[in-house]
Amino acid sequence: MSRNRAFTLIELLVVIAIIAILAAILFPVFAQAKVAAKGAASLSNAKQMTTASIIYSADYDDVQILVGFADATATAYGIRPWTSTMMPYMKSLQLYADPLTTFRNPGFGDPNNAYLYAPQFTYAWQVHSPAIYYGGPTMVWSPLSQTGLAQPADTIFMMSKRSGFVGPEWWWGSANFVIITSFSNGVPHCPGGGYTGKNPNSLCGPGMLSWGVGSISGETGVNEVEGHLTGGTTVRKAGQSVVTFADGHAKTMSPGRIAAGTNYVKTQNQSATAITDITKYMWDAD
C-alpha cells in the first residue's frame, strides 16, 4: 500500500527559491509593461487634444484655438484658457492629465478647475496663438490659420509639462491685459523677447528662456525630470517628452531633438541658447 509523502524542508526551500527567482524576473517585466501602457495613454491623450484643435479650426474658419480670453462667466478667475475652449471637442477633463505621473491639484479647489487651469500638457501658443505686443498695455492675441502653417508636420503644437505647477495657464500681466502663459511651456529660444516666424513682434512669455542652466523664479527647485533645464517641458519616460505636431501626429522626443535647430546644451547657461539652423527649428510657423 502506497503512502503520501510530505515535502521535506529542503524541497520546500527549493520550491520557494524557484518562485522567488521567477518573481524577481517577472516583476520588472510587469513594471515595464505598466510604464509602457501609461506611456501609450499619455501619447494618446496628447494626440486627442491636438486632433480636437484641428477639428475646432475646421469649425471656426481655419483659425487656431485662442490661447485664452477674459470672460466674467468663467468658473474660475474670470478667464477661459485654451483648455476651456477645447473642451467641447474633448468631452473628458481627464484627457488633460498625463498618465505617466500623478495628477495634482495645486490649490484650485474644484478638481474640474484644476484640470482646466493646471493641465499636464501645454499648448505652444507662442507659435499658434502669439501675443502681438504694440507697446504699453496694448497686446493682441492673434491665432494663426491652421492651413497657413508652412510645415505642420514639423511644427510643435503641444508637449508634456510639469505636473501640479502652482501657477495656472495664465498670468496677470497688468490691470489692462492678461498674458496667457505658463512657466511650463517654454520654447528653446525666444530671440530678444520677440518671436521668429509669422508674427515677428510676438511677445514670448516670462518662462521662455529656461532651456539650459539658470531658471526663472517660478521654476526654482524643479528637478530635471520636471523641466528645470527644458523650460518646464517634462522629461519622463526613458528621457523622452510627449510632443504633438500641428498635423496631428504625436511621438516621444528627447530634449535635444525638441530643441533641434538651436545650440541648446543642458550644461550651458540659458542665455547662450540661440537658433543656429532655422530649417530644423520646430517652434516656428514658417
Structure report:
- The chain has one domain.
- It is of the alpha+beta class and 286 residues long.
- The chain is built from five helices and eleven strands, in the order αββααβαββββββββα.
Quick structural gist:
The protein is of the alpha+beta class and 286 residues long. It is 25% helix and 12% strand. It has one domain.
The whole-angstrom Rg is 23 Å
Output the structural class.
alpha+beta
Low-confidence stretches: 171-184
Series of H and E elements? HEEHHEHEEEEEEEEH
Order of strands side by side in the largest beta sheet? 3-6-10-11
Helical stretch tally:
5
Level of helix content? 10-25%
Strand segment tally:
11
Termini gap: 90 Å
For the largest beta-sheet, the strand count, sense and barrel status come to: 4 strands, antiparallel
Q: What best-fitting shape do the alpha-carbon axes yield?
A: elongated
- Kindly estimate the percentage of residues that lie in beta strands according to DSSP: 5-15%
